[in-house]
Amino acid sequence: MAKKNKSEKPINNDDRNKFQWIIWTLFALENWILDFGRPIAMLVSPQEWFPLSMPSIGDYFHMAYNVITPFCLYSLMKKASNKSYQMLVNLSIIFFIMGASIHLVGDSINHRLSLIGYQLHLSVEDNPIMKKLEPKELVKSFELLYFYDEVLGHYMWYIPFFLCINIYFANSFLDRDLPNPKLCMLQKILKNILLVLSSVYYWYLVTEGQITPLFISSLAFMHIVLVFNGFQMRKMDQNGKFLFHTFQLTFILIGLWSYWLWNDSQLRIKYPGLIYVPEPWSVYSLHYREYFNLF
To answer: For the chain: N or C, fewer Cβ within 10 A?
Structure first.
C-alpha cells in the first residue's frame, strides 16, 4: 500500500474561504493595463517609434496579456475550494492562447487601418477607404481579416476564458457555511474598489468583444449552480461571492449602456437585432472622435 505523503497538509475550509487578494488584484491590473490600455497606448505613442511595418506598443501589450492571463487563470484554478475538470481547464487555456494570438494579428492590422482613415462604426465594405481599393476583390480579404479578428479570434479567446471562470465558480462552494473573514475598514473599501474595477473591465470586455450572449449564458449558469448548491446546503466561499457580484454588476452596466444608445439610428445600422450592444470604440469613432481625436 502506498504511503501517504506527510509533507502534504490537508486544506481546511477556513483556508479555502480566504479572499485571494493577490490573484484578483493581478487580474484587475493586467486586464486594465494590457487589455483596456492596449488601444490607448497604441494611439498615444509616437508613430515614428513604431513604424507601420513593425509591431506597435499595443502589440507588445497583447503579447504580455497572452502570457500573463493564462498564468492568472491557472493560479486561480489551483486556489479553488474544490478541484475538478482539470483536463478541461488545461485544454481551455490552450485554446485561449490560440484565440488571443489570432486576435493579436487581426487587431494589429485593424489599428493600422484606423490610422489611415478606417472608420470603426462602419462595416468593412461601407468604409470609404475600402471603396477605393482596386481590385474590388481585395475587400473580401479584409472581410476575412475582420472575421478572424472580431468573430473567430474573439470566440476562441472568450469561450475558453469564461469556461474556466464557470468551472472555478462551480468549485467555489463549501460543505458548510463559514463566517466571513474579518476585514478592516480599509480592506472592505479596497475590496469594493476591486469589485467595481473588475465589473467595469468586464463591461468593456463584453461590449467591445461583442460576446453578450456568451456572458449572459455564463451568468445564467452561475445562477443555476447557485440554486443547485443551495438545495445541497452548500455556500459560496469569498472568492465565489466576489466573482458572482462582479458579473451581476457587469450585467447592470451592460443594460445601462444599451439603454443609453438604444435609439441611435446610425449605430443600429451596424448592430441590428434585439441584442443591441454597441462597441465603445465604435461609439467613440461616431460621436466623439471630432472632439477627442486620438487617431
So the answer is: N
CB 173, CB 235: distance < 8 Å = yes
User: Is omega for the bond preceding 135 within 30 degrees of 0, making it cis?
Assistant: yes
The per-residue b/e assignment along 220-234, b for 16 or more CB within 10 angstroms, e otherwise, is ebbeebbeebeeeeb
For residue 285, give every residue at least 6 positions away whose Cβ sits within 8 Å of its Cβ, in sequence order, or none: 119, 120, 121
- Non-local (6+) Cβ contacts of 112 within 8 A are 52
* Cell reading at 31: 486586464
Report the residue count for the chain. 295
Query: What is the biggest distance separating any 2 CA atoms in the chain, rounded to whole angstroms?
Result: 76
Cell (9 digits) for 210: 461583442
How buried is 260 (Cβ within 10 angstroms: 0-12 exposed, 13-18 middle, 19+ buried)? Answer: exposed
Residue with cell 468586464: 202
Give the residue carrying C-alpha cell 481551455: 92
Task: Report d(CA 220, CA 258) in Å as an integer.
Answer: 19
Neighbouring C-beta atoms of residue 134, cutoff 10 Å:
6
DSSP class of 286: I
> Residue 288 burial by CB count (10 A; 0-12/13-18/19+): exposed, middle or buried?
exposed
**What distance in Å separates the CA atoms of residue 205 and residue 215, rounded to the nearest whole number?**
10
- The C-alpha cell at 20 is 485571494
Residues 254-281 pLDDT 10s: 999 999 999 888 888 888 878 899 988 8
Give the whole-angstrom CA distance, residue 37 versus residue 39.
Answer: 6
pLDDT 10s digits, 166-214: 999 999 998 876 666 777 788 889 999 999 999 999 999 999 888 999 9
**How many angstroms separate the CA atoms of 34 and 55, rounded?**
15
